[in-house]
Each structure stands twice: as C-alpha cells, then as structure tokens.
Write a structure and sequence with these properties.
The protein has about 280 residues and is α+β, with helices and mostly antiparallel strands. It contains six helices and 13 strands. The strands form three sheets. The chain has a seven-stranded antiparallel sheet with strand order 1-11-6-13-4-3-2. It has a four-stranded antiparallel sheet with strand order 5-12-7-10, with no helix packed on it. It has a two-stranded antiparallel ribbon with strand order 8-9. About 5% of the residues have low confidence. The structure holds fe (ii) ion.
Length: about 280
C-alpha cells in the first residue's frame, strides 16, 4: 500500500470521495449566494474567461488577490450591457481571498480534516494563497481551457497544489474536470504574468502541445475533494445541463519557494497563512 502522498506524486491528482459532508457543501453554497446578494456590480463588471486572458486583465481582476471580488460569465450580458438573467446566475466565480476574509470560507479551508490532509501529503510548509468559489451554472457555465495551475501561481521551484471541492455532483454533462493520470510529469508551458509597463501577458515557456486525448473525465459525487498538482494539465467543458456544478477551490504554495512579484496575483507574502493558522 502506497501512502496518500506517494499516490499523489505518481498520479498528479487524487480523488477523495466523501471528504466533505453534504451539509458543509450546502453551507458554502449558501454563503456564496449571500455574498453575491450583497454585491453591487454597477460600474465594474469583470468577465473571467481563460480563452482570452486579455479580457480579464482589467484592474478589478488584477486587484482581486486580497479581496472578495465577483466575475461574470462571458455570456452574462446582452448587447446593451444588461444582465440577461439574475445576478447570481450570471456569475462565473468569486475570488480570490475568500479563505482569508470570509469567516465561513476561512474555517472550511482550515478545518481539522484539511490540516490532517495537508499533513498526510507532507505539505507542512504550504500556505493558502488563493481561493475561488466556482459556480458553473446550468446552461451558462463556460468551458475552462486546458491549463496548468502553476501558470497562474508560478513559484521557483514549482510548488503550487490545488484542492478542488465538488459542492455538487460533477459529471460530464455539467462540466466535470478532465485530466490524465501522470499528466503532471511534464514541463510548465506558460506563465501568466504582469508586464512591467502594466497589463498582463501569457509568457510562453514551452510550446509543446498538451496531450488532450489522454485526459479522462474525473466525475465525482458531491462532497469529493480532488487534489491537483500544479503541473497537471486539466480542463472542463461548458455546462450544457440543467444542473449547476458548484465547486470551491483553494490553491497553496510553499512558503519556502520564491514567489516572483510578476505573478498576476499579488499578496503580502508575510500575511499568508497555513492550514493551521487563522486570525478568526
Ligand atoms: Fe485549474
């Protein structure tokens, strides 16, 4: 029997079913809906779309590293700039510091179970740097192109590890994750970084294409946790079903790794906390 850590290191991801009680999933989804209800979007709609990064490079997005910010689906607005449906069902995600600012998300992110999981994976140096509530609403939830999370959370050496929680069943029809076992044993293709003159760019490191044909759907029931290596290429399809696919994701990096200031996500590195630390 290999350990959890060995399985993760060889496969590049781990699926832990029944990691989160359904009640805890429901509490996070309700909290996110409450946060969205208090959001006044007029004046700063920001669209999250991985297939055209230039569109998301506005100041609202770039300043969201230490805030609770709201991002819309690309198809949320009509030609007149009005929302086509209610605000909540127009949102793509909320990010990127829910885990530090909101008490409900903070306590979920630093639960006893998370502390034990991080310990089992040997992540004793890791701190939480980013969190996202991802809605993937019915019919409107867009695709997320193949990417490696280390592209968006670049460290030297590579240390990014993600924890993705299925708050609802994630199936092919509603846009589950796709990845290949062992897919992380590859190079980092790109680095999404700030340009010195302002704005962002996708800096290409290796032009080798991803092996998309090797990727398989990671269909999981509500309450599952999928741990993702920062170099593991993964993607998700649009939600064409009538059911949302809400997920919460936390990303961690090693406190010992170098986190260049050119990364798009800016945090006061000295303020980053581990799974055990909390000021709540
Ligand atoms: Fe990702």
């Amino acid at each position: 029997m290999s350990t959890l850590s060995e399985q993760f290191q060889s496969q590049g991801y781990l699926v832990l079913e029944q990691f989160v009680p359904h009640k805890a999933c429901d509490i996070l989804m309700m909290r996110a809906e409450d946060l969205a209800a208090d959001f006044d979007y007029k004046g700063h709609p920001s669209v999250f779309q991985t297939s055209d990064q230039t569109k998301s490079s506005d100041d609202y997005f770039l300043d969201s590293g230490d805030k609770i910010s709201f991002f819309f689906e690309k198809d949320a607005f009509d030609e007149k700039g009005e929302l086509k449906q209610d605000l909540f069902h127009s949102l793509n995600k909320i990010g990127h510091a829910l885990h530090d600012i909101d008490p409900v998300f903070s306590s979920f992110s630093r639960s006893q179970e998370m502390q034990e999981l991080a310990f089992a994976l040997g992540l004793t140096d890791h701190v939480l740097i980013q969190s996202m509530m991802i809605f993937k609403h019915a019919k409107i939830g867009g695709k997320v192109d193949v990417h490696q999370d280390a592209t968006f959370l670049y460290t030297e050496p590579q240390s990014c590890i993600g924890f993705w929680f299925a708050l609802e069943d994630a199936m092919i029809e509603n846009g589950c994750l796709w990845a290949a076992a062992g897919g992380h044993q590859t190079s980092l293709r790109s680095w999404f970084k700030r340009k010195p003159e302002g704005g962002t760019e996708m800096h290409i490191i290796d032009e080798q294409p991803y092996n998309i044909n090797a990727m398989r759907p990671l269909e999981v029931p509500k309450g599952s946790c999928i741990i993702l290596h920062g170099l593991l290429p993964h993607y998700s399809l649009p939600n064409t079903s009538g059911k949302s696919r809400q997920a919460y994701a936390i990303h961690t990096i090693s406190r010992e790794a170098r986190y260049p200031s050119a990364n798009w996500l800016r945090r006061d590195l000295s303020s980053l906390k581990s799974f055990k630390e909390s000021d709540k």
